[in-house]
Amino acid sequence: MLATMSMLLLFYMSQNNLITLLMAMEMLLLTVTVKLIYMGGVYDDMYGTMFSLVMIMLAGAESAMGLSMLVSYYRLRGKVGHTI
């Protein structure tokens, strides 16, 4: 799990396309959520599982809002990317 998170963090830091950055961030949140579900099952904790379900719902809303912001940014600028 640590290798997955470190690879996704490296991918997030190295890319310059906004869509791939958003996808990497969503994958990081999903990795943390899956780990929370696993640890809730190991320790027989229902609160951790319920919290992770709330996190999944919030991540869906966040990705819908992020995608709508990217679409509006593309309509304004004509490109979806950033330069350093």
From TrEMBL:
Catalyzed chemical reaction(s): a ubiquinone + NADH + 5 H(+)(in) = a ubiquinol + NAD(+) + 4 H(+)(out)
Gene Ontology molecular function terms on file: NADH dehydrogenase (ubiquinone) activity; oxidoreductase activity, acting on NAD(P)H
Keyword Methyltransferase set for record: no
Subcellular location: Mitochondrion inner membrane; Mitochondrion membrane
EC number from the UniProt entry: 7.1.1.2
Chief location category: mitochondrion
Membrane topology of the entry: Multi-pass membrane protein
Family to which this protein belongs: Belongs to the complex I subunit 4L family.
Protein name: NADH-ubiquinone oxidoreductase chain 4L
